From TrEMBL:
<dbReference type="GO" id="GO:0005829">
    <property type="term" value="C:cytosol"/>
</dbReference>
<dbReference type="InterPro" id="IPR036554">
    <property type="entry name" value="GHMP_kinase_C_sf"/>
</dbReference>
<feature type="binding site">
    <location>
        <position position="245"/>
    </location>
    <ligand>
        <name>substrate</name>
    </ligand>
</feature>
<feature type="binding site">
    <location>
        <position position="149"/>
    </location>
    <ligand>
        <name>Mg(2+)</name>
    </ligand>
</feature>
<dbReference type="GO" id="GO:0005524">
    <property type="term" value="F:ATP binding"/>
</dbReference>
<protein>
    <recommendedName>
        <fullName>Galactokinase</fullName>
        <ecNumber>2.7.1.6</ecNumber>
    </recommendedName>
</protein>
<dbReference type="InterPro" id="IPR006206">
    <property type="entry name" value="Mevalonate/galactokinase"/>
</dbReference>
<dbReference type="InterPro" id="IPR006203">
    <property type="entry name" value="GHMP_knse_ATP-bd_CS"/>
</dbReference>
<feature type="domain" description="Galactokinase N-terminal">
    <location>
        <begin position="27"/>
        <end position="75"/>
    </location>
</feature>
<feature type="binding site">
    <location>
        <position position="85"/>
    </location>
    <ligand>
        <name>ATP</name>
    </ligand>
</feature>
<feature type="domain" description="GHMP kinase N-terminal">
    <location>
        <begin position="111"/>
        <end position="199"/>
    </location>
</feature>
<dbReference type="GO" id="GO:0000287">
    <property type="term" value="F:magnesium ion binding"/>
</dbReference>
<dbReference type="GO" id="GO:0004335">
    <property type="term" value="F:galactokinase activity"/>
</dbReference>
<keyword id="KW-0460">Magnesium</keyword>
<dbReference type="InterPro" id="IPR013750">
    <property type="entry name" value="GHMP_kinase_C_dom"/>
</dbReference>
<feature type="binding site">
    <location>
        <position position="181"/>
    </location>
    <ligand>
        <name>Mg(2+)</name>
    </ligand>
</feature>
<dbReference type="InterPro" id="IPR000705">
    <property type="entry name" value="Galactokinase"/>
</dbReference>
Amino acid sequence: MNGPLDPEAGAEAEALNAAQTAEAAEGFRAVHGGEPTGIWAAPGRVNLIGEHTDYNDGFVMPLALPHTTRVAAARRDDGVLGLHSADVSGGTVRLPAEKLAPGTADGWAAYPAGVVWALREAGLLSGREGGADLYIRSDVPTGAGLSSSAALEVATAVALNDLYGLGLAPERIARLCQRAENEFVGVPCGIMDQMASACCTAGHALHLDTRDLAARQVPFDLAAAGLRLLVVDTRVKHALGDGEYARRRAGCEEAAAALGVAALRDVPYGELDTALAGLADPALRPLVRHVVTENRRVEEVVGLLDAGDPRSIGPVLTAGHASLRDDFAVSCPELDLVVETANAAGALGARMTGGGFGGSAVVLVEAAGAEEVGAEVADAFDAAGHPAPRLFEAVPSTGARRLDG
Ligand code: GLA
């Protein structure tokens, strides 16, 4: 494995914060001139269980990664939004905040511009407000199903929230960021990623009801239990905008309408067979089966963690993968290979995480066997002729925050 990250560990975390704060401030000065007012950070995430349930008003359980997007920012009073990404070449874009509308920005700039647009649409900023200089730097892998988009949106939103003294609660920030992604960027995502980035806390997974955003921080101290959660980025680039995600979402909505419920979350597990039998279109049945059983799996995992039995969530994770692969059809050969190889090598359980069609898997392992499981997965990729996967440890980390002061 290439160096599991553990920036939550005391001094190491402080040193990392200090280094990232200094880098962002220096980058800001070099690009925009002057001093940034502050430096904000928002993390990527992995989802432990509860996949493709969020746009069905269901349950999810993400945790924040140590990897973050940082935004160094200062207000501008001339209404210009000056965006610079240190992660792309030629990454400077200047836009008039007042004229922002879907289609006026693309690529990476659409995410922060979309957030300013969403704040303005909500009436939180008007006239020339929303002008700001932003310097953006991220170490959340992109296209890996780890929510680099949400990290960028939420980091931008918490920066503007402070710069303009908006006083927005994290849930409101998450909703505004989701709107930016849905309507400005044009990706029909649910609310999980933005809520994870805005609300997660170190050492916990976030048990979230996506219908009303009721949330509970569930202690998830794997190290104390002698366990580790590995992330395997298959390096197969996923793109949620490519139509498959939207098709699954539309299928779920069609099924809910056919069943006469507001959302598939309203189909009780105990009535699944009756619901399936009542669906005239057989193509909708596996979608419904996945969502209903996945919501049930979230509750199972929460129950096991509350009972202090983290080892036993492994088979539930693997069952979730089978459901995503066979019923929801959002896996891919590389993700399946991670899950099969890891489980054969002694992992407690494994599953794809995020939207699928590529991206990453999570693997629950005994700490003592982590290196071996990782090596077996890497060997299997090599033998299959796939590029080497990227492996690291998911240490449940802090959600969005101001880094300086
Ligand atoms: C992506 C979306 C989320 C969620 C997951 C699947 O990450 O952004 O809203 O739908 O896929 O669980």
